[in-house]
Amino acid sequence: MSQRITLPKVIFGTSGLGNLYVALEDKIKLEIVTACIQYSSGQKPVVFDCAGKYGAGLALETLGNCLKMLNIKPEDVLISNKLGWYRTTELQSGTEPTFESGVWRNLKYDAVQKISYKGILECYEQGNQLLNGYKAKLVSVHDPDEYVAGAQSQLEKDKRYSDIIEAYRALCELKSRDEVKAIGIGSKDWRMIQRIVNDVNLDWVMIANSMTVHSHPQELVTFMEELQQRGTIIINAAVFNGGFLIGEDYYNYRSIDVLDTTYRSEMNQGEVCIRGPAIFKGYYSDEAKTKEVIDQDGWLHTGDVGEWTSNGALRIIDRAKHIFKLSQGKYIAPERLEDVYIRSQWVAQIFIDGISSEASVVAIVIPDEQYVRKNFQTGTTETTFADLCKDAKLKQIILSDLIRLAEKSNLKIYETLSNIHLHPELFSHNNGFITVTFKVRRNNARKHFQSIIKSLYQTDPIITSKNSLK
């Protein structure tokens, strides 16, 4: 087979232009395309890899618009369009697309899969229209492995594979008419590539998520050597595994609802789950414990509750297993509240807890000794810090400041501290209250301060906040 194309060492992916995980502003997308052009070391053409599936054609549309705005000549770019997904109806605002729910953000259109002789040509024509004057010269059938895997029976699998071969027949006709330069394939399961190259003459293959720094099986290496001997170009996508190049926060990430709480994935909050070759396989010789954290689909449930920030970062806001319920049925996320109260200059550390039979939260507070000694007058400099922590006036001052922070942060009444206990010793590794990552060992703290926490509901907090009167 004669090879008609030469590809550079680096090809630019465009899934981010289709709002993969994050809906970037148009100006940022333009900056991305501009950087790709500028930092290609003068190579021409600059190669972009795209797909109708990327944001239901949004990536194609955005790429074409950006190239047009930059006055890039069509001959100076080489665009690959992985075909098989066709833009359809406009979505209602806030509605998820019917494909890959939770992956693409703020899409305007839905898309359907069309893998057949006629369907692949429709995808090709629509893709060129979306490219706004540019044309895809590298074409392929997108994710044929997933298409076949979606079959419900062996008979349907055979039919779907036949659809793929028919789609490639259409692409070969485009190539014979010089409408495209080269035909390839992109697949997450390399074995599907191995199967198709025996039935179709391919100019290039894209191995997605199979040949990575985490996983590189010998049989795949052998197959790649065979491709090289045939003269087939190999493009290795996701060398560092899915999600790496757009930030580790998206490393095969998804969020799920936290049961019995208000944390819901559709509200941009949920438990963080991750999956991939780099994720640990389980606890050694402890299948029961492994099943507690890794579900049947291979997702590791981290126990962290996360939310997306406006700039596309994943922020950890709580721990799912640390949430507890108060008597009125309200759920408390203690670590979120601690992030508010720790802003007090009087506080070095704080541990918030509660009892299910009570309607408010309380806290163990370790005051900032240096700040206390500088700002709290006792009349003597010889008072031990332990004795200072027993001072009712100091407790009143600190509790007042914590309530001020609660009001400033618009915390609910039940999230406002009703009482505190001042503890003189910092939580540390030595006393067993801090992990190696400097997080509070909540179970240890709860057990140690159990009687004190209970007593905080039985004694007056000395002061009354205006919130408590509401």
TrEMBL record:
Domain NADP-dependent oxidoreductase intervals: 9-254
GO CC, alphabetical: endoplasmic reticulum; membrane
Keyword line: Ligase
Keyword hit for Ligase: yes
A GO MF term: long-chain fatty acid-CoA ligase activity
InterPro entries: NAD(P)_OxRdtase_dom_sf, NADP_OxRdtase_dom
SUPFAM superfamilies xref list: Acetyl-CoA synthetase-like, NAD(P)-linked oxidoreductase
PANTHER family on file: LONG-CHAIN-FATTY-ACID--COA LIGASE, LONG-CHAIN-FATTY-ACID--COA LIGASE 5
Protein name as annotated: NADP-dependent oxidoreductase domain-containing protein
